[in-house]
From TrEMBL:
Signal peptide location: none
Organism whose genome encodes this protein: Paenibacillus antri
Record key words, sorted: DNA-binding, Transcription, Transcription regulation
GO molecular function: DNA-binding transcription factor activity; sequence-specific DNA binding
Any Pfam family matching the protein: HTH_18
Domain of life: Bacteria
SUPFAM superfamilies: Homeodomain-like, Regulatory protein AraC
HTH araC/xylS-type domain: residues covered: 187-285
SMART domains in the record: HTH_ARAC
Protein name, per record: Helix-turn-helix transcriptional regulator
InterPro entries hit by this protein: Homeodomain-like_sf, HTH-like, HTH_AraC, HTH_AraC-typ_CS, Tscrpt_reg_AraC-type_HTH
Length: 287
């Protein structure tokens, strides 16, 4: 299965949509370098579409996203009356196409959780049978009805909001990806590390608590978060220390102990390595 992986923010941007009906024998037009993503959702009948060397039969309740950088064309005419919605959208951020989970874009772990906008990967299946086709039909119908008022700011905002709900629906339909054992393992490990960050938790103890081998946990977290469990815990501790540096007048030693460091000098070394300044210099930025 081909996945489209977008780095967000920025959010995907709705452009336009419409409703089309093909009689038997009519086929989807051929286009190259469309410069936008073209989402097709079939209500009745079937569309036979090719994109480069890939072939799709888009039946009722199915959605296909045609890429802006590929040649797509009608493979054959419809065999029956076919009704479908089309929707154009775009992104101003980076994106990639990958088979299954390969090539996922990791979140921006270098960003400051308190002040920076953190990027994360949004993965959409290029072709999928929607888990809730009736809801997709409803959302696309509302978007289509808003078209006559698209010159109004309120209508444009409503369109973007409806489109983001549709994007969530597409993402949720890729059950095999979202509920993969590797992702579930990484998320459980991250949740445990966040809840026990003050403790001296080891990778072996993490493995016992999750009932997984530490090497498997590390591989899963590297895939999902771009770092090992130890690195994830260190970054989270530093983020918590930054809150205390801003909000309290505690000593550096006390803050180090509060967030799980046994020795203040080691805490200062780790803080400086990740933030580029010492804890004391960071505090002075806000006092």
């Amino acid at each position: 299965m081909t996945m489209l992986v977008f780095t967000v923010p920025p959010l995907l941007q709705y452009i336009a949509c419409g409703h089309s009906i093909f009689d038997p024998g009519e086929r989807h037009m051929s286009r190259r370098n469309l410069h936008v993503f073209d989402l097709l959702f079939v209500q009745k009948g079937c569309l036979y579409i090719g994109e480069e060397e890939r072939r799709y039969e888009v039946g009722p309740g199915c959605a296909l996203v045609l890429r802006p950088d590929c040649f797509h064309y009608g493979l054959e005419g419809c065999r029956e009356r076919t009704e479908y919605y089309w929707l154009h959208f775009q992104t101003s951020g980076p994106w990639t196409a990958a088979d299954d989970d390969a090539g996922e874009l990791h979140p921006d772990n270098a960003a400051d959780e308190l002040f920076d906008v953190r990027s994360f990967p949004l993965t959409l299946p290029q072709f999928v049978r929607l888990a809730k086709p009736a809801k997709a039909d409803e959302l696309l119908g509302q978007l289509d009805q808003l078209h006559p008022n698209a010159h109004l700011s309120a209508a444009r905002l409503k369109q973007q909001l409806l489109f983001q709900e549709l994007v969530q629906l597409l993402a949720a339909s890729q059950d095999s990806r979202r509920n993969s054992p590797g992702r579930a393992c990484a998320e459980r490990a991250a949740a445990l590390l966040r809840s026990r960050y003050r403790e001296d938790i080891t990778v072996r103890e993490l493995g016992k608590r999750l009932s997984f081998h530490p090497v498997y946990i590390a591989r899963c977290m590297q895939r999902e978060y771009g770092c090992t469990p130890r690195e994830y815990l260190l970054r989270y501790r530093i983020e918590q220390s930054k809150l205390l540096l801003m909000q309290t007048d505690w000593t550096i030693a006390r803050i180090a102990e509060e967030v799980g460091f046994r020795q203040a000098p080691y805490f200062s070394t780790c803080f400086s390595r990740l933030e580029g300044i010492t804890p004391r210099e960071y505090r002075q930025l806000f006092h």
